């Protein structure tokens, strides 16, 4: 960091560095920014003592470059946050530049989550049963296969929607739907 740069705490354990006087050429500005980030990362690499105990801190740095003609503070903060969360998701203790593809992926994921929520309300799921057969050819059980045929998207692979349901917390509602639908099909043992 240089005297012209600004360091501010944005809240919680998040801080911002605004580096000024970078090159007008994006590749050179990126190189200069990378050097600044590397110095910040090195400064936190060594443990420090707090109340006599050695402590370690990891730093996740999200970076976006801007010029005064395209600068929108809210958009810039959103971009640096997206880049920072990419670092946290990968391995922490590093830096990443904002890539417009990040925004595209997040927007697509948010739309899929919303469609998944609507699909439960609109009953767009189908449940198929695949028999499980033993060595003698007898049916010993059934595997429930959940399928989603979206009115908007068409068929959506379980490999796509199941991880999204798990990560967004919608898997519980999906599981409850499966149990409610399959309950009449499950034979009950005599008591």
Give a written overview of the molecule:
This protein is of the alpha+beta class and 191 residues long. The chain folds into two domains: 6-98, Reverse transcriptase/Diguanylate cyclase domain (Alpha-Beta Plaits), CATH 3.30.70; 104-185, no CATH class. Helices cover 44% and strands 26% of the residues. It has five helices and nine strands. The chain has a three-stranded antiparallel sheet with strand order 7-8-9. Strands 1-2 form a two-stranded antiparallel ribbon. A two-stranded antiparallel ribbon has the order 3-4. The N and C termini lie far apart (75 Å).
How many structural domains?
2
What shape does the CA trace take? Answer: elongated
Which class of the largest domain in CATH terms?
Answer: Alpha Beta
Kindly report the spatial arrangement of strands forming the biggest sheet. 7-8-9
Residue share in β-strands: 25-35%
Query: Based on the structure given, which CATH architecture of the largest domain is correct?
Result: 2-Layer Sandwich
Q: Ends: how far apart?
A: 75 Å
User: What are the segments in which pLDDT stays under 50 over at least 5 consecutive residues?
Assistant: none
CATH H level of the largest domain: which superfamily?
Reverse transcriptase/Diguanylate cyclase domain
What name does the CATH topology of the largest domain carry?
A: Alpha-Beta Plaits
What is the averaged pLDDT score?
Answer: 84
Counting DSSP E segments of at least 2 residues, the number of strands comes to 9
Major sheet attributes? 3 strands, antiparallel
The proportion of residues forming helix, as a percent range, comes to 40-55%
The helix/strand order is: EEHEEEHEHEEEHH
